[in-house]
Amino acid sequence: MGRHSQVRRRRSPSVVLTAVGVPAAVLLAAGADAQRPVVPDRAEPVVAEAPPCCMELVAAAPAGFASTGGAPGTRVEWVASSRASVRELRALPAGVAPERGLQVKTILVARAVSAIFPEIHSIGGMRPDALRWHPEGLAIDVMIPNPGSAEGIALGNQIVAFALKNAERFGLQDCIWRGVYYTPGGARGGGYGHYDHVHITTTGGGYPTGGEVYYR
Question: Which N-terminal stretch is annotated as signal sequence (predicted)?
Fold first, then answer.
């Protein structure tokens, strides 16, 4: 089972985000065109063939943004490289991961995985461990149904590919799956365990303040 045990907890309620140290709210957001990746069901290191899900930090008006009307935060327009882009923002609900003790980027990736992969029914979060990642809210364990089956392996591969494709937006540090250690810079195999779940570590981004909302 690797070095992590399965953690089952009830869903946590959604929370809302306010920036600290800036006059405007900061939203953790993802594009509505998010899609799950398609990768071969193979046990060797997977390739990040997932399309980007457009997770990004978005600042609300007046910090370079202008509301286009409607409910606050539901439609935001911004200009980048002399081009305007408009996106509909939809809040990501709390997923299956227990969010207590998780940092904001870890919550973001956990909610994104729950939204894109509804067949995932259990994600472990903060817990005591000899290493710092889980105790400090930097890591989750995405439990894979029937992990030794062809379908389970393919699902784990898709989740790794999804995380790698969105590494910058998620603040991804690494993933571990079926003995392979993945980072945005490459992968190496051998002796890493994690055959029943995908371990995902982020850079954290700080603990929630009670004012977060995670947008898709």
Answer: 1-34
